[in-house]
């Protein structure tokens, strides 16, 4: 059995209920880290060009980096 991408927690003072659908506005949502990272990578692959210009605060000329390198660095950073 595979764990769901998200679970929601309802706190009923005495008990905590876990479910896979949001039942109330004040439910707390937890997301599986690997599912979150996969969604971020898919989004970046879809939205970014092959080369990305990154401008650091205080610099005039942006640093160019390959999209794959940026995504790999981001994935490593999130997993740390």
For the record, the count of structural domains works out to 2
**How many angstroms separate the termini?**
27 Å
Helix content: 25-40%
Largest sheet: 3 strands, antiparallel
What is the average per-residue confidence, as pLDDT, rounded to a whole number? Answer: 86
Strand content range: 25-35%
- What order do the strands of the largest sheet run in, or round the barrel if closed? 2-1-3
Number of helices: 2
Low-confidence stretches: none
* Class inferred from helices and paired strands: alpha+beta
Gross geometry = elongated
Count the strands?
A: 5
Rg calculated over all Cα atoms: 18 Å
Order of helices and strands: EEEHEEH
Structure description:
With 80 residues, the chain is an alpha+beta fold. The protein folds into two domains: 31 residues, no CATH class; 48 residues, no CATH class. It contains two helices and five strands; from the N terminus they run βββαββα. The strands form two sheets. It has a three-stranded antiparallel β-sheet with strand order 2-1-3. Strands 4-5 form a two-stranded antiparallel sheet. A hairpin with a 2-residue loop joins strand 1 and strand 2. Helix 1 packs antiparallel against helix 2. The protein is elongated, with a radius of gyration of 18 Å.
């Amino acid at each position: 059995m595979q764990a769901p991408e998200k679970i929601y927690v309802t706190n009923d003072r005495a008990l905590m209920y876990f479910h896979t659908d949001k039942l109330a506005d004040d439910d707390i949502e937890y997301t599986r880290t690997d599912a979150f990272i996969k969604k971020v990578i898919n989004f970046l692959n879809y939205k970014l060009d092959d080369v990305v210009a990154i401008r650091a605060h205080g610099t005039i000329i942006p640093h160019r980096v390959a999209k794959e390198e940026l995504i790999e660095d981001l994935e490593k950073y999130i997993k740390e």
